[in-house]
């Protein structure tokens, strides 16, 4: 009788996992904390703490269910600290003749595992069916299409699942209510306070170990409040459905200077590690709509993020890798600005988005796309530097979801495979959608001069610099028309403003690395 080692990864903490299904009674389940996975980018302490605490709790759950479990802790003396090597070591230790594992969240690991399928100790790879679709499903949908647009994919998913459908037609008569979901921040808004999760001895020890072994990484455990058990994740789901969902839609693109979470669900980390299923989350939102407790624009917008966007980026990742990661269509070469690691900038919107990231390992999607992302796009930050940063600092960042969002949506580095145009904007957008600018030393109304918002000159400089690739894009015809009508003196002044700013911009090659400038001190960049 075959004796398998069932390797369960840190983002696979679901009892419904294919690896665990129909497991023979002699199987050994392995969960492994390895330094290699915590250090290949400098993951935020909250992210590492989340994985370690949730994995340790899941091991307890598995033992309670009758599984034989081996748990490799970060401080075990014989831990190899390589996921592949540790699994093979444990298989030999327990006399297992094969290793079974469900598709991981990164092509890097998937490729390593595939290379071992024909070894004497073989790896059996299983498809992850905890999503609405598989990579093969997406591949079949994409076949023969010139453009892989989300909207068409999303509509097919609605029809296939029946979510928010009445027969063959969408509830409310429209597929998409995005135009109702763009209201800016308002001073009178009050946001629901998040549940505060208690920390038992398992959680406390895991957070302590994460902070001890990775004390050189971003963050402090003092502000840790992520769900590390299924029970805690269900509390967060219920809280959002009852207190956040109704207002989520119209304010989903708003940005607050003081409130990090607004009406957002903050459920993505729990879904991405397996504590919640996307099906149950979507069905809970749909039920709230049918109960008359949340408007269609909010519920449709929320479900589209999960059923549409989340599935779409995963399908794109698995069908485009490994070549996708090397794409750099606009030829960006600049290293990451140093303040992305410490929030030491006098640009208020960036300072607040990055400080909230440092505090919570979280920023909502518009902060990521239109503040930190937009700035990186306008400055020409090289894709690998920005992608590594997003992967490192956010608790919900698995490469399958992070890479397409960053490389494709933020940097337009995939040549338009995901987005038909770059998501670039001047300071006017941030002024409209947030209350940052009233607290900032820069003015979004000025393009040049000492008080001009850097986003403004950088915006026009980006358009001018990349005109050869972008000016034929029909969706950018109007803005390039405005640029062409601009007087040369004004264009030259903008050009100089942007280039002086970029020349003084301190960059860093990674967390804890010294800043680099082109002959300027750090303080000079803020004068």
From TrEMBL:
Composition bias, kind Polar residues: at what positions?
Answer: 515-527
Q: Which organism is it from?
A: Vreelandella lionensis
One Pfam short name: DPRP
Which region ranges are annotated with the description Disordered? 505-527
Position of the signal peptide? none
What name has this protein been given in UniProt? Answer: Cryptochrome/photolyase family protein
């Amino acid at each position: 009788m075959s004796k398998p080692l069932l390797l369960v990864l840190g983002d696979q903490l679901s009892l419904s996992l294919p690896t665990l299904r129909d497991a023979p009674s002699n199987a050994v389940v392995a969960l492994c904390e390895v330094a290699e996975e915590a250090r290949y980018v400098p993951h935020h302490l909250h992210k590492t703490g989340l994985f370690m605490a949730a994995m340790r709790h899941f091991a307890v759950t598995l033992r309670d269910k009758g599984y034989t479990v081996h748990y490799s802790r970060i401080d075990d003396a014989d831990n190899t600290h390589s996921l592949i090597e540790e699994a093979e070591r444990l298989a030999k230790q327990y006399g297992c003749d094969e290793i079974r594992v469900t598709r991981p969240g990164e092509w890097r690991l998937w490729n390593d595992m595939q290379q071992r399928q024909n070894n004497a100790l073989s790896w059996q790879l299983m498809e992850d069916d905890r999503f609405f679709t598989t990579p093969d499903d997406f591949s079949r949908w994409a076949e023969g299409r010139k453009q892989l647009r989300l909207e068409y994919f999303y509509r097919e998913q609605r029809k296939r699942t029946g979510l928010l459908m009445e027969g063959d037609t969408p509830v409310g008569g429209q597929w998409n209510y995005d135009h109702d979901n763009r209201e800016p921040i308002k001073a009178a808004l009050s946001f629901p306070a998040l549940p505060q999760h208690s920390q038992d001895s398992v959680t406390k020890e895991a957070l302590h170990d994460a902070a001890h072994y990775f004390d050189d990484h971003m963050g402090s455990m003092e502000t840790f409040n992520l769900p590390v058990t299924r029970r805690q994740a269900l509390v967060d789901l219920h809280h959002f459905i009852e207190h956040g969902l109704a207002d989520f839609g119209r304010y989903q693109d708003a940005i607050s200077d003081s409130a990090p979470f607004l009406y957002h669900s903050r459920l993505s980390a729990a879904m991405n590690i397996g504590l919640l299923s996307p099906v149950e989350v979507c069905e809970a939102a749909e039920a709230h709509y049918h109960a008359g407790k949340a408007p269609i624009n909010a519920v449709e917008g929320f479900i589209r993020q999960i059923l549409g966007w989340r599935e779409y980026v995963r399908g794109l990742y698995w069908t485009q890798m490994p070549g996708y990661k090397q794409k750099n269509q606009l030829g960006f070469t600049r290293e990451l600005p140093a303040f992305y690691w410490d929030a030491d900038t006098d640009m208020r919107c960036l300072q607040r988005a990055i400080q909230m990231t440092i505090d919570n390992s979280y920023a909502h999607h518009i902060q990521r796309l239109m503040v930190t992302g937009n700035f990186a796009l306008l400055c020409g930050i090289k894709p690998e530097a920005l992608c590594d940063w997003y992967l490192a600092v956010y608790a919900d960042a698995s490469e399958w979801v992070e890479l397409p969002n960053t490389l494709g949506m933020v940097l337009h580095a995939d040549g338009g495979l995901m987005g038909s145009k770059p998501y670039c904007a001047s300071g006017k957008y941030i002024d409209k959608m947030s209350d940052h600018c009233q607290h900032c030393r820069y003015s979004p109304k000025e393009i040049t001069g000492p008080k001009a918002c850097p986003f403004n000159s950088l915006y026009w400089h980006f358009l001018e610099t990349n005109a050869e690739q972008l000016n034929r894009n029909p969706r950018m015809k109007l803005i390039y028309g405005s640029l062409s009508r601009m007087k040369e003196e004004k264009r030259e002044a903008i050009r100089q403003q942007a280039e002086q700013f970029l020349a003084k911009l301190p960059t860093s090659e990674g967390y804890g690395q010294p800043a680099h400038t082109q002959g300027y001190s750090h303080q000079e960049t803020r004068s």
